[in-house]
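Is this the right way to post structure tokens for a design question? Let me know if I should format differently. Anyway, here goes:
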């Protein structure tokens, strides 16, 4: 099969296409022929070496397709099932294995493209808005990079839960998308002081929760946007990791809470995974959650997908397509 391989760490250029042996499913695994593959920032972090994996490796964990083989212990998944997962071992490929309990069977009416686009960013938006801080009607939230993959979905879910939603983005075109997704107010954090804007918009009160995926460039300002006892959910680092910081700062800024959540801990059991995926895919099917697929990139051009994501050129999901 064809697969994208990383043999040395570095920029997008280290992603090369190769012919390698087909993977075989282990006893608890399924082998899936992939139709659409999700590109995520975490793939960039592994490519750069910010997160570690032994070399060489095939990047990617999110995809959707059709099961072509199962291991001897697998009971709930059958050959021919249409499935999606965030748990593939090396998803930038024609075929990949995943533990069967990490697979979600796609409901009728959801395509493989939608499945691959919805799983990681959709379930992340879901856990942030319903569990990390379970938004209530009237809560105020700030979402950084609101026109991004997670951002567009999180803005819609936050709005649907009755929250007052402020988004930050870098351009006017992205501002329009963030408004369409449900942001009541949008701040261009590349031109405006987002802390001053959030203070102005909230009449000085601050927001209940900041969902911060940008990291290095926004972290300090995010703390200053919170009401006393507010929560900063730092869930990403698109601008770079946050440098070490003194937790004592949380006291004078208002007895603040800080969490650094990750999806794996919010889909820790098969039941929780199926519940979150079921909600997200159900909302997409009934039209209450709109997916924005920014572009489909041929698998062989994975480096172009990484370049565009890192260059802030994308709004919504970037997919790789094997054929
Ligand atoms: P996005 O589509 O949001 O892309 C990143 C966006 O971040 C850009 O479009 C850009 O929006 C903004 N950004 C701000 N500064 C920079 C910079 N210096 N370089 C690049 N981008 C910048 O990506 P995703 O939605 O896929 O992921 C967002 C973040 O969330 C990532 O860090 C990812 O790792 C993390 N994440 C975490 C999860 C978790 O469970 N913890 C799960 C899923 C994602 P703009 O131009 O508007 O500033």
């Amino acid at each position: 099969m064809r697969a994208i391989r990383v043999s040395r760490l570095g920029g997008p250029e280290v992603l090369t296409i190769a012919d390698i042996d087909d993977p075989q499913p282990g006893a608890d695994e399924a082998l899936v022929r992939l139709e659409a593959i999700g590109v995520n920032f975490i793939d960039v972090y592994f490519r750069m070496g910010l997160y570690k994996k032994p070399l060489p490796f095939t990047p990617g964990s999110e995809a959707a397709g059709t099961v072509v083989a199962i291991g001897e212990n697998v009971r709930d998944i059958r050959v021919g099932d249409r499935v999606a997962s965030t748990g593939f071992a090396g998803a930038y490929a024609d075929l990949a294995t995943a533990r069967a309990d990490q697979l979600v069977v796609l409901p009728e009416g959801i395509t493989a493209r939608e499945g691959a686009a919805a799983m990681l960013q959709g379930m992340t938006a879901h856990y942030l808005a319903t569990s990390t801080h379970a938004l209530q009607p009237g809560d105020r939230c700030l979402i950084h990079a609101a026109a991004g993959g997670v951002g567009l979905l999180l803005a819609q879910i936050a709005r649907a839960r009755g929250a007052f939603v402020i988004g930050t983005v870098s351009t006017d075109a992205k501002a329009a998308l963030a408004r369409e997704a449900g942001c009541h107010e949008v701040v261009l954090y590349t031109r405006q002081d987002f802390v001053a804007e959030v203070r102005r918009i909230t009449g000085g009160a601050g927001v209940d929760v900041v969902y911060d995926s940008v990291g290095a460039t926004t972290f300090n300002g995010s703390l200053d946007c919170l009401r006393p006892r507010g929560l900063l959910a730092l869930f990403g680092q698109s601008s770079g990791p946050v440098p070490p910081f003194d937790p004592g700062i949380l006291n004078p800024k208002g007895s603040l809470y800080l969490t650094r959540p990750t999806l794996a801990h919010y889909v820790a059991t098969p039941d929780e995974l199926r519940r979150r995926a079921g909600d997200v895919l159900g909302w997409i099917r009934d039209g209450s959650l709109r997916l924005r697929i920014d572009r489909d990139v041929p698998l062989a051009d994975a480096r172009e997908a990484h370049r565009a994501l890192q260059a802030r050129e994308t709004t919504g999901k970037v997919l790789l397509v094997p054929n």
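Format looks fine. Someone answered above. Worth noting: The longest strand covers residues 29-39. The CA atoms of residues 126 and 279 lie 8 Å apart.
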